[in-house]
Structure formats: structure tokens, C-alpha cells
Amino acid sequence: MKKTHGIAILGFGVVGGGVAKLVTDNKEELKKYTGKEIEIVRILDLRDFPDSPFASVITHDYSDVLSDERVDTVIEVMGGSHPAYEYTMAALKAGKNVVSSNKEVVANYGDEFVKAAKEAGVSYRFEAAVGGGIPVISPMLFSLRQNRMTEVRGILNGTTNYILTKMFTFGDSFESALADAQAKGYAERNPDADVLGIDASRKIAILSALGFDKLVNVNEIPTEGITGIRAEDVRAAESIGHSIKLLGRCIARENADPFIMVAPFLLPSDSPLAGVCGVYNAVEVLAEPLGNVMFYGQGAGAGATASAVVGDLIPIIAYDNYNPIVPGFNKTDYSPKAAFGEFKAKSYVALPEGSEECVRKVFGEVTPISSCGEYAFITEAMSEADFASRIEKLGVKPLSRIRFA
Ligand code: HSE
């Protein structure tokens, strides 16, 4: 019986560095829980790290990882779909466990990984892929499984939540809040994946699979980001006691697949999700008979993400042949985009001044909101299809439209 458990870390960036540090700093505690010493056998990266204490285990060649019999678990924290997909499949097929923080590859190929892990009798785990350090995948896999999910919704992207918080708290424009997020290192130089909602759509695809047993194609998730949110919208939201949050939502339907979407939503300022500020993330699960639970914490960063990665590693080491069933990762052709026309919500709409008369004709009675230099109102709850046809009839492009959650 081996006294050590060998790991290889793919990607020695912020998260990979965090994992190496945690495993090293908490060596004794981890040994106490798992019964074995975790040995960092290999670290794969394109770069050299001559001054790092891990310099001797750096490799640039993945075959060094695959062929090394000391490697029991591969920690894939490199990001992106390729070569993460190929490396993960090869590791699983070689009988190595894989732990990943990479939401893109989990959302795109989770079904294949779960199947390959089952066939090889090893583990594939991905707690860090959603909500960084927040334990949400494991609760959804195990603790909440006996419930019927009615909705899973969350603030799944810290960068956009930081930007929206700046816009609400300090009155920043989107552009200046984004520049600040970039200066602080939260937003990438190319911030598209965050601000266009793509990152959140990958994460809601993963949560939907766990909650509703189907893994949809991420490109089929209706996705709106926060680039269109203006200072006027922030003021309008505040005037009615609401906040705006970018939410990933998966909502159960009777006898139909769930609605799945990512979009900015108006939430009452005193609701739990509205109170989630800055780079923090939160996931709210509404389920029967449980009721509501909310998971809250740091959605990114070296320490938080490493915590989730190493948390996945512990049962793999502690229990022999640990490969629990991962339900839900069944690829489907169901298109949440096609179903979205039936999704009903009230909306806040801002139009150029002078549109009042036309609005009354097309939308009937609406609730006006005071707005400087434009005409803003709240519609009744109506389907997306209905809303779109009324806007077409109106013949005026809204300056803004944000749904109520
Ligand atoms: N870009 C992501 C965010 C990082 O801002 O939340 C964590 O997935």
C-alpha cells in the first residue's frame, strides 16, 4: 500500500500555484484526514519557473505526466477547452483521477469525462468549476439530491458583480467600472467572456445538469451580458427599491425541460442575492421539500479555488476506488433558446421621451417610472415572444430592457 498520493498539476498559474501552496502548507492536516502524504510529482506548464520551490518537477511535456506511474490524480487547472479536453480524456483512460476547476471544459465535455471515469473506475470531480471556493457542486450531487429542484439561480461571475456593485454604490459608468475591475486584476484585458455572460452560461449549464439531469449545449443558452446597462438604468432601479444582478437561472417547468438563461435581472434590494456584492458569488437553490438554501462566498482567486480543488482531492485519497455516481451529465438536444419565447417576466423598459402615447396603445396600462429625459415603465408579466411582438409593433428600439426576477 502506497504511503503517498501523487498529483500532477496542469497549469502553474494563479490556481495551480494556489493548489501547490495549499498542499504544501497544509501537508500535515491533509495527511491526518487522508492517511497519506500528497506528493506533487509533476507540474505541466509552458513556462519555466527556475526560482520556484517546484522548479524540479516542472515539465513542458504532457507525456511525462501520463507515463509517470507515481501520478494518481491529475489536477487540470489550465482553463480553455483544448488541450484540456484531450489531456483529461487521456488521464482518465490511463486510470488516473482528474480534478478540474475548468468550467469551460466541464460544461462542454462533462458527459464524456463522467462516462470515461466510470469506465476506468476512477474519479472525475469539478467543485471549483462553479463558484470558486463555494461548496455547491458537492451539495447538489449528494446533500440535496433527494429534493425536486424548482429553481437554481446564482450570481456566478465575480467580475460582472464587481462592476455592477461599483455602478450602484459609486455611480460609475459601465466603462469606468470595467476599467477599475481590469486595474484590480478581476477582469481580463479581453473581458468578453465575463461581461457578455459567457462565463456565467457555462456555470449555469453545469448547475442545470446537476439539478435537472440534462447537459445542454452552452451555445443554446439565451445569454445577455451587462454591457448595455446604463447609469440611467441604475437610477431607475434604485428609484423602485431594486438592484440589478447578472443571474444564471434554471427554472423547472411542468412536463417540459427547464428554462435556462443568463441575463441581468432586477431584484428587490432586500433580497438575499441583491445583498451579494463585489467579487462575491452566490447560488440559491429552491427545492421541494427543502425550501431555499443559498451558498455564498468567493467565486475566484488562488486560495478559494485551491480550497475547492483540494477538497475534491481529499475523498479520492481517503477512500480507495472513490468514484461516486455523477448523475445529470446526459447530453441533450434540448434548446433553451428555442423554449425562451415562452418565458414570462415583468420588464423595465426605457424608451426615448415622447413614446408614452404609443406605449399605451401597444402595451395597455403600464407603470411609469420617473426618469430624466426618457420614458421608462414597467410592463405586466408577459412572455418573451409577446414582448418582442409588441416592441416590433411599437417601432421604437428600447434604450434598455431589464426583466424582473
Ligand atoms: N472570470 C471569472 C469571474 C473567474 O469573474 O467570476 C472565476 O470563474
Could you characterize what this model shows?
With 405 residues, the chain is of the alpha/beta class. It folds into three domains: 4-136 and 302-318, NAD(P)-binding Rossmann-like Domain (Rossmann fold); 137-298, Dihydrodipicolinate Reductase, domain 2 (2-Layer Sandwich); 343-404, ACT-like. Chain A, domain 2 (Alpha-Beta Plaits). The protein has helices at 14-25, 27-34, 62-66, 84-93, 103-120, 137-143, 158-170, 174-183, 192-195, 198-212, 231-239, 302-318, 336-339, 356-363, 384-394, and strands spanning 4-10, 37-44, 58-59, 71-76, 97-100, 124-125, 148-155, 242-253, 256-268, 280-288, 291-298, 344-345, 347-352, 367-369, 374-378, 382-383, 400-404. The strands form three sheets. Strands 11-10-7-8-9-17-13-15-14 form a nine-stranded mixed beta sheet. Strands 3-2-1-4-5-6 form a six-stranded parallel beta sheet, with helices on both faces. It has a two-stranded antiparallel ribbon with strand order 12-16. Helix 4 links the parallel strand 4 (71-76) and strand 5 (97-100). Helix 7 (158-170) crosses helix 8. The protein starts with a strand and ends with a strand. The site of L-homoserine has 8 residues, from helix 7.
Question: How would you concisely characterize the structure shown here?
Answer:
The chain is α/β, with parallel strands linked by helices and 405 residues long. The protein is built from 15 helices and 17 strands. The chain has a 9-stranded mixed β-sheet with strand order 11-10-7-8-9-17-13-15-14.
